[in-house]
Target: Rab proteins geranylgeranyltransferase component A-like
Amino acid sequence: MAKNIFKSMYPDEDFLPRAPDPEEIVLEGDEAPGPKFEGGDIAEGEEKQDVEKAEKEEE
Model:
């Protein structure tokens, strides 16, 4: 029944198209959603890893 209603409203569109794979999803913006972490100091090695990871993702 839902498929019939959908087809009558949108005859050229697919009913329930395939969901994208996680690798296909592109998020906009620099920060991840959610609250910011306001913990203690970050160790120098951890901060360096985060910077390197961010640089790789930008390429």
Q: What stands out?
A: The chain has a mean pLDDT of 77.
